[in-house]
Design brief:
The chain is an alpha/beta fold and 370 residues long. It is built from 15 helices and nine strands. The protein has a single domain (49-369), classed as Rossmann fold, CATH 3.40.50.1820. Helix 9 (245-252) runs antiparallel to helix 12.
């Protein structure tokens, strides 16, 4: 497997064409005072587009990404882009960190220094990590994909191959969103090398048997109510991307304003404009709108894992995000050793609450390596 150095260098003409499209955007009408009831409010998107046109600086983000060692390689016929940051602490444990949709490797930039250089944050050097942060096949500079079948299991297999080729015999897997499905799958596929898994969601659901709902705790009832609300009000993206991703791509690949509005439904006002636009830019600049959405289609048609994970797994839940329910999680994961719930953080804790997330990651792997 050949590993090549990689540097991001977006032609200025591409950025100028983006500006032209934003300036020519045709805005949809909306009902007065409708708020978020029908989807993304026009005022919210207009504010983001105004910032995109007049204040946002892609070159700053490009330079930030290029300040870290980046590489590309080919695994299972697919180009894979990844950041690889080695700690100065030689005994550091390697971690592979996997993002989701509508995120990207941008999700993890704020925790790189915290995890690789703990001394700078007043943390014991023994809690240092080497980091591998890949772009999911079909996303960003790992895209687009050129064939069907890139579901969470195939990605997990590719990640295991990547860690092997990098020479890591023992490593941990960390994930958010789609990464919270891919990382546990790595534990099933490569249990001899994965020492532990840390995720921010455990996507385990009721079986449909009425006994699932007997003696629910207050926290579990809250979780079920929130899940039902999300399914009723915010789950449209999943339905469309898992059934007709190509149909969606015709609109979003042609309109940066449309792409921004679609992806922002899982960003919204809880995160800053630069974080939203940094992530959206990686989809626009790499023309990976269609291939990123295909992950939902592939996962919807992939067999469900039929065995429990036995590798130790830890969970950090953050306020406003998907609420995992332990009684269901334990059906899929035999060895849950950490279960934490925090205020704030929402779906992007690595960006919004990096110190808390890093503390949980350190705690989990310190426990496992005793």
């Amino acid at each position: 497997m050949s590993i090549e150095n990689f540097t991001i260098s977006i032609p200025q003409t591409v950025l100028e064409e983006l500006q032209r499209r934003l300036a020519a955007a045709r805005w949809p009408q909306e009902l007065p005072d409708s708020g978020w009831s029908y989807g993304m409010p026009k005022a919210f998107v207009q504010d983001l587009v105004d910032y995109w046109r007049n204040a946002y600086d892609w070159r700053k983000t490009e330079a930030r990404l290029n300040s870290y060692p980046q590489f590309t390689t080919t695994i299972d016929g697919q180009n894979v882009h990844f950041l690889h940051i080695r700690s100065q602490e030689q005994n550091a444990l390697p971690l592979i960190l996997t993002h989701g949709w509508p995120g990207s490797v941008i999700e993890y930039l704020d925790i790189i220094e915290r995890l690789t250089n703990p001394r700078a944050f007043g943390v014991d050097a023994a809690q240092a990590f080497h980091l591998v942060i890949p772009s999911i096949p079909g996303y960003g500079f790992s895209g687009p994909t050129s064939e069907a079948g890139w579901n969470q299991t195939r990605i997990a297999e590719a990640w295991a191959e990547l860690m092997s080729q990098l020479g890591y015999e023992r490593y941990g897997a960390v994930g958010n969103d789609a990464g919270s499905m891919i990382s546990p799958q790595m534990g099933r596929i490569d249990p001899d090398h994965v020492v532990g898994i840390h995720v921010t969601q455990i996507f385990s659901f009721p079986s449909g048997d009425p006994s699932d709902f007997v003696d629910l705790s207050e926290e579990e009832r809250e979780g079920m109510q929130r899940l039902q609300w999300f399914m009723d009000n915010r789950f449209g993206f999943n339905k469309l991307q898992s059934t007709q991703p190509q149909l969606l791509a015709f609109a979003l690949s042609d309109s940066p304003m449309g792409l921004l509005a679609w992806n922002s439904q899982l960003f919204d006002e809880r995160v800053d404009k630069d974080f939203i636009l940094d992530n959206v830019m990686l989809y626009w600049l790499t023309d990976t709108v269609a291939s990123a959405a295909r992950l939902y289609y592939e996962n919807a048609r992939a067999p469900r894992p039929d065995v429990q994970t036995t590798v130790p797994i830890g969970l950090s839940m953050f306020e406003g995000d998907f609420i995992s329910i332990r009684r269901f999680a334990e059906r899929d994961h035999k060895n849950i050793v950490q279960w934490k719930r925090h205020k704030g953080g929402w779906h992007y804790a690595a960006h919004l609450l990096p110190d808390i997330l890093c503390s949980d990651i350190r705690e989990l792997f310190s426990m496992l390596l005793l």
